[in-house]
């Protein structure tokens, strides 16, 4: 059932992207290599051996990108800063003025067109030089990330008032250090993700405090982190064990980061209990889940001004009926759940649309964290097709997801402040290369000029924005 209504006047509509996925210019003007540059240069790592070397060539197309944003009528544009474009070696003794100039051009162009920048400091493209000293497994990264963030606040913060520290720290931890799908390709699911998450949380908190101490008073912005969330629907909603399993799934997926930040500075009880117990069964001297000191808990608690998240699909979860295997680090064993296979678990492609899951996730955040202001930072659907200009499936996706967001806001009283579509245009979809495509605009990757063409979904989304959420679907559109 559709709900008809509109969002409040100050609701912010936008589209999202990230540096490595669109910029190209991977070694232009002194940019240093990132872990993704090097990873994609090894044949066999990425679907079709695609790379982000040129991508959408956004490094050379500020005007073209702003033109698309204007045509959509967005109020904000969420993009990320490439750390190695600004600090080629990752450190602030190697500032690349061309990189700084690029982001200044982009930010100035946005402001001139009344488009609010939402800027992610870290969307996965770590400077290789910092991976060489241990990457996110090293505590040194806390200082180094802080020094990069400090430079960005100082340089861009007069115009940027909305900062995201880390995009999907939960995905970085699990895909970079658990199954090893993403660089740095560490496959230690039982321990490395927890150790890395511990450091990411501290790095996030440090950057938040730097903003608080040095910049907030003069710049007056907001700062948050942005986890990935899939709604977990209990398989049998009348079975309390499934309800618990679904909640446990969410705690391991997202509470991992948001419980410390939005609650008490510490991991969810169920995580401490489960991982601790299983570690004991394995005769380990201590839990594989690291422990925060009281001081660290105090330091981490409250380090987000708003609740940002990305979401694409949902999962069906039930309590685990398989016999406990304490030495298996398979996710379902660690969390003691069974994740229904009818909704594919592939992290990257084939995001099955489950629009009502968005309403439930919004209500879960509201209940769990005391009705914080919420921003949906990424939401969209990928399609495997070279050209999908007539992307009715994407229109349907946006229509239904936005309608569920509207219900959450209007009917359920969720404090929803903004919605961003992923993505402004087709782009480099990590290990999937240029297939599937998530864009509202099509990019012709065979053409060196990388022409941008609006899909029907772009026209549709522009209409949603114009009508502040009310979607007038005409017969000829579907
Ligand atoms: C998110 C990620 C984006 C984009 C999207 C589509 O996890 O933040 O960079 O790739 O998925 O799969």
UniProtKB/TrEMBL annotation:
Protein name, entry field: beta-glucosidase
The record describes its quaternary structure and partners as: Homodimer.
Instruction: Report the leader peptide range.
Output: none
Query: What GO terms are given for molecular function?
Result: hydrolase activity, hydrolyzing O-glycosyl compounds
One Pfam family assigned to this protein is Glyco_hydro_1
The UniProt keyword set, sorted, is: Glycoprotein, Glycosidase, Hydrolase
E.C. number, please? 3.2.1.21
What family does this belong to? Belongs to the glycosyl hydrolase 1 family.
